[in-house]
Amino acid sequence: MRRPADDGKGVHGSGGVRVVRAPREAGVSCFLVLFSATSSRRHRARLRHLAPAQAIATGFGLALAVGTSLLWLPISNAEGEFTDPVDAVFTATSALCVTGLTVVDTADHWSPFGLVVILVLIHLGGLGIMLFASLVGIVLARKLSVRSRLNAVAEAKADGIGDVRRLAWGIFATSIAIEGVVAVLLFVRFVVGYGSSAGEAAWLAVFHAVSSFNNAGFALYSDNLMSFVGDPWICLPLCAAIILGGLGFPVLRQLRREIGRPLHWTMNTRIVLAGTVVLLVLGAVYITVIEWENPGTLGAFDPATRILAGFFHAVQVRTAGFNSLDIGQMHDETWLGMDVLMFIGGGPAGTAGGIKITTFAVLLFILWTELRGGTAVNVFGKRLSRAVHREAISVVLMAIAAVMAGVIAILAMTDLDLDRVLFEAVSAFATVGLSTGITADLPDAAKLILVALMFLGRIGPLTLGSALALRERRVLYELPKERPAIG
User: Fold this and answer.
1) What is the reported pTM?
2) Is the terminal CB of the chain with fewer CB neighbours within 10 Å at N or C?
3) 315 with 304: CB under 8 angstroms?
4) Domain spans, the chain
């Protein structure tokens, strides 16, 4: 079995590994500044008084700073050199935001320490910074403050702050259990089917299991997973982990407790499950039909492999990002359909990105109600809160604005086509990680724009917006109503 090597996002341009030399004192200074910033009493006091949305954004920011610093150091580089700062921050953001876009060769550029850092960042990003902090607090202090409970509940989209201890441990146990099962299946396949040694198979199995459940899409092969395009024993376990991670922890918790009682399922669970099935089926049919005769993708394989690869990529656009076909060889109409699926994403409070299935479904239900002339939006026998209407519209408009701003900026910096830039921007914002092959060749300024899109897409436009708000302003009066012309 050949040595794993590459970026984890398909066949890219060579680009090369760019490193910069810097004095060792610079690394020491960097950590001194970071330590000083995070350890000052004033800073810790401010953190304690942050609102949950602000705490989530701040937690991701601090984790990103630490991850970037570690990946920048020579110990994380296979050649013992300092990594280009832009490449370090891009990789750290991609891992923490469970995206998978890469600008350097993952396996060849990073040392074993660097790969472990990436794996830890993936798990942190998938589990959630506030939930991870809650677990640490439970282990070390065996208790949590009310503020910590509020932060954890806000990130997990839970109903209350009653038993955060059980919530945090339940999410952690669910993650480890699913990753463990997938890792065992992959381990057996690598050993039996590909003749890998036990140590190599274990490392490959664990890395790809964690990457798949957390919807990260990092792979340790030069062609991502193109060598396994026709292998269901590799593709299907990864798909199962991706789907489960994309459902979201609230749905997984309810299914674990009430799998046989669908009448007790919440509106959120029903929307996510129904939306996941519909989008997977439509996505698989769409990609398979359009690419069926394309010699650069499905057209080169037998019918069974075409169907498997079509389904595999329908799963990936749900924000996972592995690829068993060369995305850059797909038709333009396939890219556009994948843009839509990536933008929608998966379930809330999980490892998936995008605007979320629930947000998209709420807009569809609002539209259906308006077309029927109804006054209240009813979903599965329940009336939808009007506050949810505003939240869904706000999320979608902010997401569209972010993606369009990123696309315009990158187009202004490069000579690339709109379809490729749009695909890249949507993939970054939706934390998918699929690429048409342009990521590594982008100028540094364009890479930083993708970094911003990944960060915004992971913590959510609405979360970031509320985190930036200084305070909630209460209006003690209402203005008279007036109706503008619509349409």
Assistant:
1) 0.83
2) C
3) no
4) 24-468
